[in-house]
């Protein structure tokens, strides 16, 4: 499948701008610095929808040897993990309408690209995605295993938080930065949601739990409301370095 970029309408371009500008006004001081840097590295701008083949993929392949592959929508587990293990991130090409700016049941292109693609500029994060997908492919016909891997993916790639440290001063957007560790967002499901961006960091109701592979594999998630809990990593290297533990804990849980 191809993106068919020339079929986007003027209204599609306006919707992209509205969504992009709204999130970019909100994310400095909330999003991971690696994500914010990634926005520039992959070339995302307000004035046009990303062109996968002519603009985005050449940049990504130079950065981390990944690319974005157009898909029609939700795809099978096997196809999803086959693409990811080959360093192809699946992204839909359809964009929500103006009346759907705040909520969609199924991820659209804004979620798939704006939410996720800037993190594909981070090598450790990319290596984690590819390795996790290879584990999933080895268990793709085992529903219980896929359920557990889906939980881990959900609480990291989609709804993960990271504790970032930085010296006092100002970040790249001119916002004041303290010298203390701060929670920041790297999960694409949060980064593409205006409401959950603020809720995930500032609301007192959800739990914020240190990254724990065994707990993650056994923690159900919700899809129809903001999350009840978030898991917090200390670095993207921690994610990649946890791959052997993921394999080990998964095998333990499957035979228990």
Describe this structure in words.
With 256 residues, the chain is α/β, with parallel strands linked by helices. It has a single domain (5-255), classed as Aromatic amino acid hydroxylase (Phenylalanine Hydroxylase). It is built from twelve helices and eight strands. The chain has helices at 10-26, 33-42, 52-63, 77-85, 109-116, 123-138, 143-158, 188-191, 194-202, 213-217, 236-241, 243-255, and strands spanning 67-71, 88-92, 161-164, 169-170, 176-177, 182-185, 207-210, 229-233. A four-stranded mixed beta sheet has the order 6-3-8-7. A two-stranded parallel ribbon has the order 1-2. The chain has a two-stranded antiparallel ribbon with strand order 4-5. Helix 10 (213-217) links the parallel strand 7 (207-210) and strand 8 (229-233). It is globular, with a radius of gyration of 18 Å. Residues 167-179 have low confidence and may be disordered.
Approximately what portion of the residues adopt beta-strand conformation?
A: 5-15%
How many independent structural domains?
A: 1
| Corresponding CATH superfamily | Aromatic amino acid hydroxylase
Mean pLDDT reading: 92
The CATH class assignment is Mainly Alpha
Number of strands: 8
Stated plainly, the CATH topology is called Phenylalanine Hydroxylase
Tertiary shape:
globular
